[in-house]
Amino acid sequence: MNYTAILQEIYQQIKRLPVTGTVTETIPELATIDPNKFGMHLTTLNGDDFGIGNSDEKFSIQSISKTLTVAMAFSLLGERMWERVGVEPSGNPFNSLVQLEYEKGMPRNPFINAGAIVVADMLVSQLKDPKKEFLDFVRMLSGSPQIDFNRSVAESEKQTGFRNVALANFIKSFGNIENDVDTVLDFYFFQCSIEMSCKELAHAFFFFANGGITKSGRQVLTQSQAKRLNALMQMCGFYDESGEFTYKVGLPGKSGIGGGIAALYPKNFTVTTWSPRLNEKGNSELGMNALELLTTKTGMSIF
Amino acid sequence: MNYTAILQEIYQQIKRLPVTGTVTETIPELATIDPNKFGMHLTTLNGDDFGIGNSDEKFSIQSISKTLTVAMAFSLLGERMWERVGVEPSGNPFNSLVQLEYEKGMPRNPFINAGAIVVADMLVSQLKDPKKEFLDFVRMLSGSPQIDFNRSVAESEKQTGFRNVALANFIKSFGNIENDVDTVLDFYFFQCSIEMSCKELAHAFFFFANGGITKSGRQVLTQSQAKRLNALMQMCGFYDESGEFTYKVGLPGKSGIGGGIAALYPKNFTVTTWSPRLNEKGNSELGMNALELLTTKTGMSIF
Amino acid sequence: MNYTAILQEIYQQIKRLPVTGTVTETIPELATIDPNKFGMHLTTLNGDDFGIGNSDEKFSIQSISKTLTVAMAFSLLGERMWERVGVEPSGNPFNSLVQLEYEKGMPRNPFINAGAIVVADMLVSQLKDPKKEFLDFVRMLSGSPQIDFNRSVAESEKQTGFRNVALANFIKSFGNIENDVDTVLDFYFFQCSIEMSCKELAHAFFFFANGGITKSGRQVLTQSQAKRLNALMQMCGFYDESGEFTYKVGLPGKSGIGGGIAALYPKNFTVTTWSPRLNEKGNSELGMNALELLTTKTGMSIF
Amino acid sequence: MNYTAILQEIYQQIKRLPVTGTVTETIPELATIDPNKFGMHLTTLNGDDFGIGNSDEKFSIQSISKTLTVAMAFSLLGERMWERVGVEPSGNPFNSLVQLEYEKGMPRNPFINAGAIVVADMLVSQLKDPKKEFLDFVRMLSGSPQIDFNRSVAESEKQTGFRNVALANFIKSFGNIENDVDTVLDFYFFQCSIEMSCKELAHAFFFFANGGITKSGRQVLTQSQAKRLNALMQMCGFYDESGEFTYKVGLPGKSGIGGGIAALYPKNFTVTTWSPRLNEKGNSELGMNALELLTTKTGMSIF
């Protein structure tokens, strides 16, 4: 498969598309990003790299970090973790409290905010120095020791994240948060503010496509665990647009409101995109288009 | 892959499992079925057949019929059909009216009852003799001209299906049913009462795994359309246990309250099970176990 | 209190108000009514009558009939009736199915459609000839033997009442309807299609204000029962605008989409209005204004 | 009316009732109260006082304080206050977030927690020294300058009030809280921790029954405003048991989880009860019984 040519084609087509989405305004610090940035990177399991556009530029991974905290928690806790968070799609917007109320503080899945906050609480309980150890984990996954978080973005989220404070306290009222709400949210805003390039992210996702083994050869999850998280991404990675993404793209993946998407074709490749314009559902508009073009052109979909 | 041996092993393990589920009581006519029946059938894309237990015995396919009406409607209407029914998981039990109210009569997906009733309405509008033409379609798909529906099961559903009557009238009140509610439900109860064996069902599902081309070589959907319905089955085939099934089994599939499950591994095989004992969510308990064993033993999962 | 002058004043003020509401389109037969009709009638407990405008013209009482079926059911069944229908406000629009689903087929109160259908089912079970006996009851209450129902309105509701068919079947699916759904709805559409004038309705409501004793001196409810139904009207008589009505008018009452309102000041008077223009919530716009003016001018509110 | 004898009778009957309710465990500091306390006090509009049992003992007024903050906000803001909080019953438990989500951060009424927090925010915005000025207002209403709040109860609420923190942040995320969430909640927990005796509370409620004029003759609300708040108490004073209370007792009132109830018969009397055992809905079990006995014995109900 000539990925260089394919990515080139996609890039040309993407640039000609009319743009309608807008950059997130939820987090003031992110609102100032150039909306016209576009990067894409594909890494095959034999280690070949294909990048285009702004694929080496760092962006805020935001909710994509949820896949990495889940992986770390899964490696530490195993199946036990599912006693506190479900594996079903939510059918509701990502920060809905309604479902949480009907289901007594047990979030539907770890990729909605409520679930990710519970996973953050698990890591805070399990790790001695949660921020440092998680950052080390992400650096190890991607093989990039210079990956870091963005303090002003984390601060910006803290200043405006009333909905997340509400979620965390609501879950705490049901007894499904063990630590101080402030500590848990501090970690949660930290993980969301981590910055990576498309290339770094494609490398970090390598182990999902590779049966749990990282690009550098380290087994962080069992093959079965990796498959399970891929299944979970497929079902729940795009909030209430997960069905649309599955229907059109047919690959497991996860989006973030920083405009990033990371996806993978098990046993074949990982692929990431970055374009800050979001559609109504909060997913990157051009990123979704680019990935749909990729599976159409290559015929590579899991279905 | 030695499927004969694998199915034999699964059968032995399944027989030793403690049974807790119960046969459906929703439809009186189905409540009298021997709960200990168990059949399983696998058909590879080169046409090899592997069956075990009661795999040649007919059972009521019930909601599995939804995949076949959707395929027929998709072949007739193309993408237009998604203007009246969505492609997102519902996150709610299969016959919930709540979501339908919030979303103004547009069902979340065609595999919950509300969505299947809308699809039934599409077929009633499109076909001259809907029952005959749909039955012919099913017979053609599976290559078994003697497949038929069960009149007393259809009657039994009509007598007790108050929830479905409620759903249909509710959707009609939003204008998303074109024909008489009675006519639409008559067709819907008919499709649910069709009886097939595991083998016939595995053959009927062949085209989903084979890029839209039936076992006898007829193209009923484009490759892209077949992939899209597989994606939809993955997301929504098991009601609010779809995530659980995806997480544990990792294959697109659809269950019915008659105890049947039909699933597929794209480009490889179709597989069906039948065991009437249902778990709390209304899915076949042993069928789900058998399929989990299959993907564990063969390593064949899409993720 | 000089009610003649007060009604005259109200009438003058009402005529000068800008009109924004629209006649119901839910029931085609009612959509043709002259939107500018306005009638008002007040009957004191000493039997004095004060009418103005089109107060002697018949209109479709619609949901106001719910108060009379509840009174009849209460007189027949006593407190037992509350085992099948609640006494709490619903906080939702009058034909919502959501609450019914969460509360397993037990309607919140007898003044939302779901509750009124359950009450209709009670009367169908209790009475030999439900329509005739209920009509006799209404004639007796108001002292007007020529009160009748409107066959074409009843038919019109039957043709378009998909939401009510949905509600009734939904409740039946929970086991809270005893009779055939068709029979119950036939009675329900009948009761809604009864036609009365403001004057007849004010007379029919007399017993609510008079401790359960009709204008002609017959005790149909105990004093305690009458008080309880007044309390219920106060809480639930105006759908999800009940609070607004209580807050502004401060009298127990009930509205109908035919544009009628019947209200009462216990131990003092009953008062009815008719104006077909409805506000967004489905209550008569000018009727609510007229009643607010009445309590402001007379200072007669229960609070 | 011989209130001395009536209260005596009620007291005797209440003491013989089997007790099933339990003291609140939501607020640890309140969980230690003697469950067998019972007090009742009635104050007529001519100023006569009738007390029985522990009617002079202080208890935590909790949610009853919501009526007094609403009165103060209404006196300061007038009708403008209803732009930020509704006047409709909620039909849901007192601390539900579901409705708030569907209605975009505008609480249904000021007597559910969400609404009371918005009212607290109004007072924090309007007053220079909110705690002191509100306490002065309460002391003035009841004529008891020694009324105070309980610091350890306020602290106890702060430690465990995760649901209220969730509510406040959730409302803030919709923009309907102006001040810092911590400041608003600090005031809210303060108001809930105020302690009063049945007698003091009956005196404080005097102005509701007296057209807005306090026992000492000061006009704090207009007659129309007082009537409106009475109507609001009638509709919403007892959470999702408001209908039950209205149906059985037929007086406007408000309960608190400290076991208190304050109610009134407009133009006649105010009446308060205290008994810490709560029923399932969070209302004082014996208090509700006592008030039902009172209206049955005296025939004094507004309906």
From TrEMBL, chains A, B, C, D:
Transmembrane segments: none annotated. It holds the Pfam family Glutaminase. One of its GO terms (molecular function) is glutaminase activity. It catalyses: L-glutamine + H2O = L-glutamate + NH4(+). Its EC number is 3.5.1.2. Substrate binds at S63, N113, E157, N164, Y188, Y239. GO terms for biological process: glutamate biosynthetic process; L-glutamine catabolic process. Homotetramer. Belongs to the glutaminase family. This is Glutaminase. It comes from Flavobacterium supellecticarium.
